[in-house]
Amino acid sequence: MRYLSTRGHADRKRFCEILLEGLAPDGGLYLPERYPQVDAIALQRLREAFNGGRPGGYAALAFEILSLFIDDIPAADLRALCEKTYTEAVFGTPQIVPLKKLEDGFYLEALSNGPTLAFKDMAMQLLGNLFDHVLAERDQRVTIVGATSGDTGSAAIEACAGRARVDIVILHPDGRTSEVQRRQMTTVLAPNVGNIAVAGSFDDCQDLAKACFNDLAFRDHHRLTAVNSINWARVMAQIVYYTAAAARLGSAERPVSFCVPTGNFGNIYAAYAAKQMGAPIGRLIIATNSNDILARFIESGAQSMAAVEATLSPSMDIQVSSNFERLLFDLFDRDGRALAKAMAAFRATGTMRASAAQLLRARGIFDAGRLDDAGTLRVIAEALRDTGELLDPHTAIGYAVARQKRGDPSLPMVVLGTAHPAKFPDAVEKAVGKRPELPERLADLYKRPERCTVLGNDLQALQQLMDTTPVPR
Q1: Residues 76/116, Cβ–Cβ less than 8 Å
Q2: What's the 3-state SS for 341-364?
């Protein structure tokens, strides 16, 4: 399996290379040259590996899926990495991703059982183990630089803290995450962990991180790599839980639809990748908050930047969705040069318009909807009353949009449960009048000391800080 850049770079690379690089040298995102195809026989093998979500089934399914994308790690080693990652000890349940019925035809795939209570753990725990394995084999070390709107940073830090061959620096927008999200990052005092609070939005943090990668001299000097969803390995690992739900609920005659609360498009892109492989997946529904660039694209064909609005669902407070470039690559018929030109124009003008044919292709797979803060509070309360399930604000948006865009009622609709409600206690308390409690392992989070560097939205200042102190404290 070889990987190519969405912006046309000539090199074709193997998995371990792109794992460590994160971003392609031309600023593009890596994708497989082709999606491995899963036929009816292979789908049956995946179902047997998953074994209905019984103990060990998720790790077995992960190995089967990942081995289609990774051929430069020995199969026995890859299987061991999957078995080490997807355990009840790490995720708190033998099923790893329980599937719960909310109402007739609607299901919740619970992805928030990991160490930081968010879906990002599903891929990030694997990435930490992959980095350890590959870096040890190569006798190398790297510095991870990542931007977060809240959950990616804590999941990345949890996965990488204390590892001997990795330093990690995470940028988050100062004052624009929930307190729980911030403290899950800033209370990790391991010597290889650095946190930077940037005066600005998540988009500003993301631009700073990308600028560090695009400065090739700086990138090479610090041996930079990425663990947020610009790294293909993140998306690849997320394909597994879509396949798991499809294996349990779907068939060739009854595909499963998914509604995904998303800001950076990485999570729902993994569903798209699973569908491209042949998993029994039907419609994919994009759920956004008021920062609705993705919904506006599906409605109008125009991708237009706007100011980021702070909401009760901060992980989706994004107006430039990095992973959307991966979908655009297919909509541009995998013409990297044409896409690179379009992306440059988008950055210069703030607008990109799809052709009629491109929009038709996107609408053939995706639908989209949005929900504002008032609606989010209403749906949290309604879901608790009607289903007994307490939802975080992001999952509530997914549930609401899933009901808006239901489509064929005979097909199962899976809503992704992306975070534990205790990560957003203020919003949940405002909705239902009761503050959700953190799990026992995080019960003292508000008492733990914090360590963080506050910085302006200034690339030169960030690079000077990293040149002086590789892991800012």
Answers
A1: no
A2: HHHHHHHHHCEEECCHHHHHHHHC
Task: List, by residue number, the catalytic residues.
Answer: 120
Which of 222, 225, 149, 157 shows the shortest CA–CA distance to 192? 157
**Looking up tokens 């403290």, which residue turns up?**
183
The pTM assigned to this predicted structure is: 0.94
What's the residue count for the chain?
473
Q: Where are the alpha helices (DSSP H) in 188-307?
A: 202-214, 216-222, 232-249, 266-277, 293-300
Distance CA 29, CA 232 (A): 8
Task: Please write the tens of the pLDDT for every residue from 43-89.
Answer: 999 999 998 888 899 999 999 999 999 999 999 999 999 999 999 99
The structural domains of the chain, with segments of one domain joined by +, span 99-115+232-432
As a CATH number, domain 99-115+232-432 is: 3.40.50.1100
pLDDT tens by residue, 378-428: 999 999 999 999 999 999 999 999 999 998 999 999 999 999 999 999 999
H/E segment holding residue 369: strand 366-370
